[in-house]
């Protein structure tokens, strides 16, 4: 297999192959541009006079032409290799120094080095052809005997064999240098990509919160009102109807109880989607409501002088709600303390209980989902719950916006 692969590569890079001529043409086409900057800098010195300012202006010309030269190099990659090199992410009409310095580094350092290598490729082709065909004009060199002709011919053949491989190496070196120095800065591209993803994630979180609020309003104004009306009618029928068979009355009573249970579940569902009191009156009122429903003594302290965004408030609300649900179900605690405070651009939520501890997000107690919800707004989630207790859940939410 190795020998077959070597033969295949040798055939692809044979002196008569299309790849060899493509790589050679690409290398040769870059020479004028790669030496252009030094030609501009050096040419005025050939006619320099003591009063001449052209040598002093030449570097400024190179700086002005740096971006057009870079664009020409990128276009050369696309035209000859089909390789797209995106330009640096610069604002239109502005010259960003990082892109300028990288462009100058190519035109003054990397480009001339590649240009010299390209000249070696051309010399290998020309020298190889001249030496391989020396027998055609050996009569003009009588001092070279038959053995010398054979040696020179063999050297020419070796040069012709090596030229395509050298051209390939120059092509790879040039495209890599163009990509690194004339293309986008990879570090800055990653930064922009991370910022873009963060904005998209924030937009998705906000959109999900808006959709939850819409569903909450639809359920509150639609299905819940119908259930209220149904429960009232069944209750009225249960209290006022007389002379109804016991079987029919039993059906009415059961339907009334089912309607009340459905109404309770509907209210819990609406409250879980997005409590209306949170949007209308803020965290203090919303958290007071859920604390009042917990069958444990709850000490609540809310110090939020300025309201955060609705998304952040919703996350804080659900942190407290889910934490209290876990305390009731698993902690066997006798008291809970909740502290919510905003300090600058950070909203800090702490829920502590005196239960048995041992809470672990990996056990599926809802803490893992709570952590994901907190991280969706770039918050931090930390739980300390040793065996025997106590358990403390601490969440910090950024609320600069």
From TrEMBL:
<keyword id="KW-0812">Transmembrane</keyword>
<dbReference type="InterPro" id="IPR050482">
    <property type="entry name" value="Sensor_HK_TwoCompSys"/>
</dbReference>
<feature type="transmembrane region" description="Helical">
    <location>
        <begin position="104"/>
        <end position="126"/>
    </location>
</feature>
<dbReference type="Pfam" id="PF02518">
    <property type="entry name" value="HATPase_c"/>
</dbReference>
<feature type="transmembrane region" description="Helical">
    <location>
        <begin position="53"/>
        <end position="72"/>
    </location>
</feature>
<feature type="transmembrane region" description="Helical">
    <location>
        <begin position="146"/>
        <end position="167"/>
    </location>
</feature>
<keyword id="KW-0547">Nucleotide-binding</keyword>
<feature type="transmembrane region" description="Helical">
    <location>
        <begin position="20"/>
        <end position="41"/>
    </location>
</feature>
<keyword id="KW-0902">Two-component regulatory system</keyword>
<keyword id="KW-0472">Membrane</keyword>
<dbReference type="InterPro" id="IPR003594">
    <property type="entry name" value="HATPase_dom"/>
</dbReference>
<dbReference type="InterPro" id="IPR036890">
    <property type="entry name" value="HATPase_C_sf"/>
</dbReference>
<keyword id="KW-1133">Transmembrane helix</keyword>
<keyword id="KW-0067">ATP-binding</keyword>
<dbReference type="Pfam" id="PF07730">
    <property type="entry name" value="HisKA_3"/>
</dbReference>
<keyword id="KW-0808">Transferase</keyword>
<keyword id="KW-0418">Kinase</keyword>
<dbReference type="InterPro" id="IPR011712">
    <property type="entry name" value="Sig_transdc_His_kin_sub3_dim/P"/>
</dbReference>
<protein>
    <recommendedName>
        <fullName>histidine kinase</fullName>
        <ecNumber>2.7.13.3</ecNumber>
    </recommendedName>
</protein>
<keyword id="KW-0597">Phosphoprotein</keyword>
<dbReference type="GO" id="GO:0016301">
    <property type="term" value="F:kinase activity"/>
</dbReference>
<feature type="domain" description="Histidine kinase/HSP90-like ATPase">
    <location>
        <begin position="311"/>
        <end position="401"/>
    </location>
</feature>
């Amino acid at each position: 297999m190795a020998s077959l692969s070597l033969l295949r590569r040798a055939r692809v890079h044979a002196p008569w192959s299309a790849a060899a001529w493509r790589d050679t043409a690409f290398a040769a086409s870059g020479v004028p541009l790669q030496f252009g900057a030094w030609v501009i800098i050096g040419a005025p010195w050939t006619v320099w006079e003591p009063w001449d300012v052209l040598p002093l202006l030449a570097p400024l010309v190179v700086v002005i032409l740096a971006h057009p030269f870079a664009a020409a190099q990128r276009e050369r990659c696309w035209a000859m290799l089909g390789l797209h090199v995106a330009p640096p992410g610069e604002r239109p009409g502005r010259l960003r120094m990082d892109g300028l310095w990288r462009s100058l580094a190519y035109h003054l350092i990397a480009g001339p080095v590649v240009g010299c290598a390209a000249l070696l490729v051309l010399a290998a082709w020309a020298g190889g052809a001249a030496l391989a065909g020396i027998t055609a004009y050996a009569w003009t060199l009588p001092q070279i005997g038959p053995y010398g002709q054979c040696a020179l011919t063999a050297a020419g053949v070796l040069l012709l064999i090596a030229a395509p491989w050298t051209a390939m190496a120059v092509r790879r070196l040039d495209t890599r240098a163009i990509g690194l120095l004339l293309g986008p800065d990879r570090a800055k591209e990653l930064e922009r990509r991370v910022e873009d993803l963060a904005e998209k994630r924030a937009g998705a979180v906000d959109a999900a919160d808006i959709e939850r609020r819409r569903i909450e309003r639809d359920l509150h104004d639609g299905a819940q009102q119908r259930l209220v009306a149904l429960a009232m009618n069944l209750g009225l029928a249960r209290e006022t109807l007389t002379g109804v068979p016991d079987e029919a009355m039993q059906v009415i009573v059961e339907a009334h109880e089912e309607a009340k249970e459905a109404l309770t579940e509907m209210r819990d569902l609406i409250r879980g989607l997005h409590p209306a009191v949170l949007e209308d009156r803020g965290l203090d009122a919303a958290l007071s409501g859920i604390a009042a429903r917990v069958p444990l003594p709850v000490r609540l302290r809310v110090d939020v002088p300025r309201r955060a965004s609705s998304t952040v408030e919703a996350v804080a609300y659900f942190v407290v709600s889910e934490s209290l649900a876990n305390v009731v179900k698993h902690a066997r605690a006798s008291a809970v303390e909740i502290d919510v405070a905003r300090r600058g651009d950070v909203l800090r939520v702490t829920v502590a209980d005196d239960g048995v501890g041992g809470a672990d997000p990996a056990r599926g107690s809802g803490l893992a989902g709570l952590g994901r919800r907190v991280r969706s707004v770039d918050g931090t989630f930390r739980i300390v719950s040793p065996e025997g207790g106590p358990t403390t859940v601490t969440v910090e939410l950024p609320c600069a916006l």
